[in-house]
# Entry
Amino acid sequence: MIQSPLKVIVLYGGTSEERDVSIASAAQVIPALRAAGHDVLALDTVAGLLSETDEHHMLNAKVHTSPADVQSLSGNTLLSSTFLHNTPSVMDADVVFLALHGGTGEDGTIQALLDMAGMTYTGSGHLASAVAMDKDLSKRLFVAAGIATPAWQMLPPAGEAFHLVLEYPLVVKPNRQGSTVGLSVVHRPSELHEAIALARQYDNEIMLEQYIAGRELTVGVLGDQALAVGEVILEARQIFDYQDKYQSGAVREVFPAELSPELISEAQVKAVKAHQALKLDDYSRADFRLDPDGQLWCLEVNTLPGMTATSLLPQSAAAVGISFVSLCDRICRMALTRRR
# Structure
């Protein structure tokens, strides 16, 4: 059966630290959707609908080695219900492809706005997006679902004393951030204050998490089916940081991962289970650590995983025979089916 082409708005940009990543994702998604036969418009939450010239510049942008400076972008967004309703070319779209990452693009805010406008969009709804963005809430749901996750504790508000119940080394990170922005691995008490101060630059809620040594694994989920299990080879590094994720060739990524069939199956089952525990829709990517004893630990689930040249979800899909063009098309079709 031949499916009719769609009118798709690729919504990207945002004002979070992951703005550059969003731009790079859109630069991949837009030509892929056009290759699938769709009519595509690019909409930047800051700049609005792009002209052909502006789109050409955007499509050739690269992700910088450090996160975007959000101070210069603070409050600089035109996306609102008024803008949507006063822009017929946007309201007439069959589906909005969310190429946003972090901030209001991933925490349920944009999703709620699109819900109120009655627009169909890709990915999870506003409530599931908000819960998944909150690492503390996510881990509570993982535990309730029987999914092992590293031990953690939340810090009290700034200035209040706290008792550390975790052992070193530990991970310090903002509770609601992605792409390891503001994250540190702390080995001794003397490093803790500086790590907390860094994390507080990005969120007033700070999580301390037990560091799990081992292999870094990732699993894409499409629908309720797990894709290929991949491994990020960190060599001597301890974390898969911002620069590693978005600079081509920074680390080695292997799809499918070289694991036993039993471990592959276990990771895939747990990825789907985590997806369902957070009540996510359509697609996600779950990240795990595999410790030296063979125990899998779920670190987090990403509701709008990156779609750049070095992104993990497209690699996870490609390893099971789903091309990038097909992946983008299927994500749009799934959103439409769910809406109907």
Notes: The radius of gyration is 20 Å.
